[in-house]
Amino acid sequence: MSSEKTTLESSLLFFLGAGASVPAGVSDVRGLVKEYIEWLISNSKKDQANRIEKVTRLIADWLMENKFNRKVDIECFWKQ
After folding, report:
1. CB 30 within 8 A of CB 71
2. Which residues contact 28 (CB under 8 A, 6 or more apart)?
């Protein structure tokens, strides 16, 4: 058995959604997006950060105009 196969077989991965990981200290999607924007800015990628912020504002405006009482929750919306 190759070491790569052994490593893959012995790995354990959990995917938690809908905020299930928040009590464990992992950010929800909104928090991850905020952290990602901060990372982009600190890594001289302000144009990408601006795109995320612009789309987030557009979605927030649409939610408000259509009387949806919820926060913006985005995951990915552009192609690298």
Report:
1. yes
2. 19, 21, 22
What integer pLDDT is reported at residue 11 of this predicted model? 65
**pLDDT the model gives residue 54:** 92
Give 10-residue mean pLDDT values along the chain (80 residues): 55 64 80 90 94 89 87 58
Q: How many CA atoms lie within 13 A of 47 on its CB side?
A: 1
Alpha-carbon distances, residue 30 vs 11, 73, 79 (angstroms)? 28, 6, 19
Residues near 34 by beta carbon (within 8 Å), at least 6 away in sequence: 27
DSSP 4-54: HHHHHHT-------TTTTGGGT---HHHHHHHHHHHHHHTT-HHHHHHHHH
The identity of residue 35, as a single letter, is E
